[in-house]
Specification:
The protein is an alpha/beta fold and about 950 residues long. It folds into five domains: about 180 residues, Rossmann fold (3-Layer(aba) Sandwich); about 90 residues; about 180 residues, Rossmann fold (3-Layer(aba) Sandwich); about 160 residues, PCRA, domain 4, CATH 1.10.486.10; about 190 residues, Lambda Exonuclease, Chain A (Alpha-Beta Complex). It has 37 helices and 23 strands. Strands 13-14-12-15-16-11-17 form a seven-stranded parallel β-sheet. The protein has a six-stranded parallel β-sheet with strand order 3-2-6-7-1-8, with helices on both faces. Helix 18 crosses helix 19. The longest helix is centred in the middle third of the chain and has 28 residues. It is globular. The two termini are about 60 Å apart.
């Protein structure tokens, strides 16, 4: 069978072939819903000749959107224009960036994360009229509760005016009336504050788009006309406001009349995001809102054996009558594609252990046993699911103790990793050398070679003499200690002259952190490098945000204060993940949604852990403001049961549900009530079953039943996407590519990149405004420049100010020439994905495409790429491979004729144009494919020489050559 070709079952085919009108696809776990969606998109574009830009697919997460695009890449022909595949938030962001001016929004708004919201409220806390929610003893106590309350209002599309109306009509005790007035005042002031700061939170993106569509009917009609076919994935996870958006874009009365379609795909049994505002009633109410709905139910499961599906169904039945089965009188009992009598079927087991330690040991032993029985299995085929992240810690310790590789998936806590804690401690010492806790942590770093005995002696003297640790170090005449002090005094002297990202980058190199982590290749070191890179990226984003808010350059003191606020806000960014290593996967059950594994362990299945105790919101929304229909049963227990069901249905062959009788408390645990609902038999194992277990040294000898496969990278198994800059990096030196794009070794900000991005973004904004308002003035352009200015990477204040003035001059000259230009701009910052093979894709973004006049109606265009560096000769432009790739993309993806390819050197206001032949386009394809193949084969041999002089990794690379000129 041809790769990318699927045989659909009748129900799947009916969903793919649906013509017009509303379609509800009830897709149970493992029934191939993503395949159905991608095949439907393929059919609409290829068979029905629908222009891709007329199709909108909305998903719930960035990961789901990326997966859908990746799957489309495998089923679509080489070279196609992407449809709009977005999350609800990214779709609304695109719309508001383009149309927000129509309702008075600044299209250059920034999007606030939760921690950004918390900090914004914290900084303006005393600007709010608060009393009840700002206790003197702990003024910041209620910030999280207030933000959660606002988020819930946004989920329900409840405006400031709606809440004010509710409060004005509220009848109750004086204290309650006062409380509600505070909440109404906070909501109003918080909304105003965000507008003043040109900022939006994620809820705003939805509610402002709804407001735009309702108040500007002409804009809504334009988008309705554009998106004739709308698809919504994970419909059960949408909230009320998101559903309102769908109904605006695809009104029921217009679908069949105007030959449009709306396809929603979901499963009420897998609705697990109530804490994010998801309204399971949306899927229950869809047929009432769209009376002419065609409904299809996908029941054939292609993942699990019937032995797993039956107990999962037994469990979820307990959510009746608040289910689609009862409401719509349908069956949702899944049938395994392997058949009921499948010989490879393994009965799921409930395992009761004595203690937490024996539960962890059981799982390790079972992993090793299955590896011995299943020759095709490796570590990545095993998943351990917990209700909460902290439940996984003992299992991590057990895996580590037995030497088995593991990885946390979707894990938070970037600031809690050792490597990031070390960097934060380094920064704290620079700001305050008398921070004894941070100082002690850094003294123990391997780089300083200070012996533990000496540190203990110094600490004892500090206590005895009652002096500060820093002062004691200053008076300690030991070479290692004095070297330590000299380093920090040196960097303290740079606090006023260097930006936080520059100083942090240099400091982590100075203490040997990067060199040590790159000297030995291992999963742990690679994760640590990626975590450091994530943290440095956060510092760079902070610098940009700080400048946008204050128009001042951030200092390390500002950064440390910001980190303190982030930690106080409970900010917990995700840690790095590496998808190309063979490891046991550990995650929360929520994080397992959409994944599948041959072997699944669900752990700690006791009352109080799974299901969790019901913790209602600190500030509840009144029922009159909750627009979703509430269930008749216990909503919390139903949600937890659905989550349990999701965990069970991740398993393909083996499913183990485990718990221990004791987790260290005085009382024995109570097994989760959900276990009995599965009707799986329980096996009791005592701690004696683990006594005398083989030690690590004998577990894997040649006579053992256990097998320990080697952890391996799987780069050649995954789809690879390369930009021209990545391809250029590999061609200059494959070992550099490894540092940059495999290990993600951090690099400092570069002023040339910051300046280039600023100019590019300003020219984009200028031409976008010019498309809708030809009367753009130079003052408008300079204001855009100010808003887009990126201050990072400059070596001094003088350099930064000099480049700012240079940018103004560049834009003034550009404007003088362009204002006379009659070119018809066709597209700005046009993204493309060019498939060279099923697992090899080139991507990029073309700065500008102008239409050229053509007598024969051919789509002839000029591709324009802005450059902020030195001008190039005609010969150099003729040989430029980047524009060759752009020409290839224009021809094969955008279906345009790239008659003219231009590099626009904006600093000199000089355009150098060229063309490309078909032979040149084929040659760049061949060259790119060779690069792809080498990367997928893990070929990263160094090519030392003159390239080392400009390489940012030359100080840590063992192959670097010192080159003199």
């Amino acid at each position: 069978m041809k790769k990318g070709t699927f045989v659909l079952n009748p129900e799947q085919q009916a969903a793919v072939d649906h013509a017009v009108g509303p379609l509800l696809v009830v897709a149970g776990a493992g029934t191939g819903k993503t395949r159905v969606i991608t095949e439907r998109i393929k059919k609409l574009i290829q068979h029905d000749n629908l222009p891709p830009e007329k199709l909108l697919a909305l998903t719930f997460t960035d990961k789901a959107a990326a997966e859908m695009l990746a799957r489309l890449d495998t089923v679509m022909p080489l070279g196609y224009t992407e449809p709009w595949v977005d999350t609800f938030h990214s779709f609304c962001d695109r719309v508001l960036k383009l149309e927000g001016l129509e309702i008075g929004l600044n299209p250059s708004y920034k999007i606030l994360s939760y921690s950004d919201q918390w900090v914004l409220v914290r900084r303006h806390l005393f600007d709010f009229e608060l009393d009840y929610y700002r206790p003197l003893s702990n003024p910041t106590k209620a910030i999280s509760a207030l933000l959660k309350f606002v988020s819930r209002l946004q989920d329900e599309n409840t405006s400031v005016e709606d809440l004010q109306s509710y409060v004005e009509s509220y009848v109750g005790e004086p204290e309650e009336i006062k409380r509600w007035k505070e909440l109404s005042s906070f909501y109003k002031k918080y909304t105003e504050l965000k507008l003043q700061q040109s900022a939006m939170d994620f809820g705003d993106l939805i509610v402002w788009t709804i407001k735009l569509f309702k108040e500007r009917n002409n804009i809504l009609n334009r988008y309705k006309k554009q998106f004739t076919h709308v698809l919504v994935d994970e419909f059960q996870d949408t909230n009320y406001a998101q559903y309102e958006l769908i109904k605006l874009l695809s009104p029921s009365a217009e679908l069949e009349v105007e030959k449009r379609s709306l396809m929603v795909v979901g499963d009420d049994s897998q609705s697990i995001y109530k804490f994010r505002g998801a309204a399971v009633s949306n899927i229950l109410d869809f047929r009432a809102d769209y009376p002419n709905t065609t409904m299809l139910t996908l029941l054939t499961n292609y993942r699990s054996s019937q032995a797993i599906l039956d107990p999962a169904y037994s469990l979820i039945q307990k959510n009746n009558p608040d289910t689609l089965e009862i409401k719509l009188n349908i069956s949702k009992e899944l049938v395994s594609s392997f058949g009921a009598d499948f010989s490879g079927s393994i009965k799921p087991e409930i395992i009761e252990l004595d203690t937490l330690e024996s539960e962890a040991e059981f799982i390790v032993k079972k992993i090793l046993l299955i590896l011995g029985q299943e020759p095709s299995y490796s570590y990545k085929d095993f998943a351990i699911l917990a209700r909460a992240n902290n439940h996984l810690d003992p299992f991590i310790m057990a895996l580590r103790r037995h030497g088995l590789p593991y990885q946390l998936v979707g894990n938070r806590g970037l600031y809690d990793t050792d490597e990031v804690r070390n960097v934060i401690a380094l920064l704290r010492i620079l700001v305050d050398p008398y921070d004894a806790i941070s100082l002690y942590r850094i003294l123990n770093l391997q780089h300083f070679n200070i012996s533990p005995d000496l540190i203990s002696k110094i600490l004892a003297e500090v206590k005895k003499e009652r002096v500060d640790l820093w002062d004691k170090l200053v008076s300690t005449p030991v070479e290692e200690v004095q070297s330590f002090l000299k380093l920090f005094e040196d960097y303290r002297g740079r606090l006023a002259s260097q930006t936080p990202s520059q100083l942090t980058y240099e400091l982590v190199h100075a203490v040997g952190m990067i060199k040590r982590l790159t000297s030995e290749e291992s999963l742990e070191n690679e994760l640590r490098l990626k975590n450091l890179d994530l943290f440095l990226e956060k510092i760079k984003k902070f610098e940009l945000s700080h400048y946008a808010d204050t128009r001042e350059i951030a200092t390390v003191v500002d950064l440390v204060n910001y980190i303190d606020l982030m930690l106080e806000a409970g900010d917990s960014p995700a840690q790095a993940e590496i998808q190309d290593y063979d490891t046991v996967q550990l995650m929360t059950t929520h994080a397992s949604k959409g994944l599948e594994y041959p072997v699944v362990f669900m752990i700690n299945l006791v009352s109080g852990r799974f299901p969790t105790r019901n913790r209602s919101d600190a500030i509840d929304l009144p029922d009159s403001l909750v627009k979703e229909r509430l269930p008749s049963g216990d909503a919390h227990l139903q949600e937890e049961r659905r989550l349990f069901y999701v965990g069970m249905t991740r398993a393909k062959k083996y499913l183990y549900l485990t718990y221990a009788k004791s987790y260290g408390g005085k009382r024995n645990t109570v097994p989760s009530g959900y276990l009995a609902e599965t009707k799986i038999e329980t096996t009791q194992l005592s701690s004696q079953d683990f006594e005398g277990a083989e030690s690590q040294s004998t577990l894997f000898d040649k006579n053992s039943v256990y097998r320990k496969p080697k952890p391996k990278k799987n780069l050649n198994e995954k789809k690879l996407v390369l930009s021209y800059s990545k391809m250029e990096s590999y061609l200059s030196c494959p070992f550099r590519y490894r540092y940059e794009h495999v290990l993600n070794v951090p690099t400092p900000s570069k002023y040339s990149l910051s300046f280039g991005n600023t100019i590019h973004n300003t020219l984009r904004d200028y031409h976008m405004k010019k498309l809708v308002s030809p009367s753009v003035k130079i003052e408008d352009v300079l204001q855009m420049y100010k808003a887009n200015w990126d201050p990072t990477g400059y070596q001094s204040k003088e350099q930064r100010e000099g480049y700012y003035k240079k940018g103004e001059d560049v834009l003034k000259k550009y404007f003088e020439v362009d204002i006379l230009n009659s070119a018809k701009t066709f597209a700005l910052e046009k993204n493309f994905y060019l498939s060279l093979d099923q697992d090899k894709t080139l991507n990029g973004r073309i700065d500008r495409i102008d239409r050229l006049d053509s007598e024969d109606g051919v789509n002839e265009v000029e591709i324009i790429d802005y450059k902020t560096g030195q001008s190039k000769s005609q010969k150099e432009v003729d040989e430029n491979e980047q524009v060759t790739i752009y020409a290839l993309a224009a021809k094969e993806v955008l279906k345009l004729v790239p008659k003219k390819l231009t590099l626009y050197f904006v600093e000199h206001n000089e355009k150098v144009s060229t063309t490309r032949t078909l032979d040149q386009l084929e040659a760049i394809k061949t060259k790119a494919l060779a690069v792809f193949s080498k990367i997928q084969d893990n070929k990263f041999d160094p090519t030392p020489g003159h390239v080392c002089k400009l390489c940012p990794y030359s100080d840590i690379c063992p192959h670097a050559q010192k080159v003199s000129y």
